[in-house]
Design a protein that fits this description.
This protein is an all-alpha fold. 58% of the residues lie in helices and 0% in strands. Helix 8 packs across helix 9.
Length: 132
């Protein structure tokens, strides 16, 4: 019998739980490797070769190449680890977060200063079931 996870139905949210941690273990380990300058240099010199040293899925590797953090979160990435990819590219956390929302850094900053993202339009998964 599986564990009930009512938190999986939080609108617009992927909860990083034990299952996500297991799915993203090697992805997150790769991200942590970027804390070392020599690894950042190797990664930036040949991303595919460096990624192929890690036991990640092809989807995870492609997500890194595409810098699609939303996809990577869905594949087990933890935002605090994934931020190392952005830092390797010379991007701030604010720039990374803005890219995840489809906003420019300035637009993202303005939204956060104004109080954050509006909840309008967010739906629980069960509310979408008949409309998808």
């Amino acid at each position: 019998m599986g564990l009930k996870k009512p938190y999986l139905d939080v609108p617009g949210t992927t909860v990083f739980d034990a299952d996500q941690a297991r799915a993203g273990y090697w992805l997150n380990q790769f991200c942590m490797s970027l804390m070392e300058s020599s690894n950042r240099t190797r990664f930036l010199a040949d991303e595919r070769a460096y990624l192929d040293e890690w036991d990640m899925t092809n989807e995870q590797k492609q997500g890194v190449v595409d810098r699609d953090l939303n996809v990577l979160i869905g594949l087990g990435g933890n935002i605090y680890f994934l931020a190392k990819i952005g830092a390797t590219d010379g991007r701030s956390f604010q720039q990374i977060a803005g890219s995840m929302t489809g906003m420019s850094e300035d637009a993202y900053r303005a939204m956060m200063v104004a109080g954050g993202r509006s909840p309008d339009g967010n739906r629980y998964l069960h509310e979408w079931s008949g409309s998808l």
